[in-house]
Amino acid sequence: MAASAHVSKVLSLYKRILVLHRFLPIDLRALGDQYVKDEFRRNKVASSEEVKSFMTEWEKYKDTLQTQVLQSAGKPLSSVKFGADLSEGKLSNFQDDQIGQLYELMLESTKSSRQFDIQEDSK
């Protein structure tokens, strides 16, 4: 794939994910936006094999989130479950630092008083 076409595809995926995050509860949106930004920055210099895997997994994430957002239309956010469980097979392919990152994300997204105490503006 030509470099400019690849960059366009990456930016399109990145922007689409950030748009989908607008439909998440505000604290999960902040957490998700920061994670996505960090991951896309971190992988700017990845090898072609890593990029292929990176893009495949983020495309799956986008598709899953898009489906969940569409299914949640009209429902209260508190009753909607976003995300998906990871199989042991997928987890076994992770590197140690990725397992650590995943664990930190899990802790942050499930604790009752999250690091991001963000409130929506009342209009």
What does this structure look like?
It is a single chain. The protein is mainly α. The protein has a domain at about 1-70. Helices cover about 65% and strands about 0% of the residues. It has helices at about 5-20, 25-40, 50-70, 90, 95-110. The longest helix is centred in the middle third of the chain and has 25 residues, at about 50-70. The mean pLDDT is about 85. Keywords: Chaperone, Mitochondrion, Transit peptide. It comes from Perca fluviatilis (European perch). Interacts with the iron-sulfur protein subunit within the SDH catalytic dimer. This is Succinate dehydrogenase assembly factor 3. One of its GO terms (cellular component) is mitochondrial intermembrane space.
Main attributes of the structure:
single chain, 123 residues, mainly alpha, 5 helices, 0% strand, globular
The overall pLDDT, averaged over residues, is 85
| Helical fraction | 55-70%
The rounded distance between the terminal residues' Cα atoms is 46 Å
Unreliable stretches (pLDDT < 50, length at least 5) are none
Main β sheet profile:
none
Strand content: under 5%
Query: SSE order, as H and E?
Result: HHHHH
Radius of gyration of CA atoms, rounded to a whole number: 16 Å
Shape: globular
Report the count of strand segments: 0
Helix/strand/pairing category: mainly alpha
Count of helices?
A: 5
Fold topology:
Elements: H1 3-21, H2 26-42, H3 48-72, H4 88-92, H5 96-110
Helix pairs in contact: 1-2, 1-3
Subcellular location: Mitochondrion matrix
InterPro entries: SDHAF3/Sdh7 (IPR008381)
Family: Belongs to the complex I LYR family. SDHAF3 subfamily.
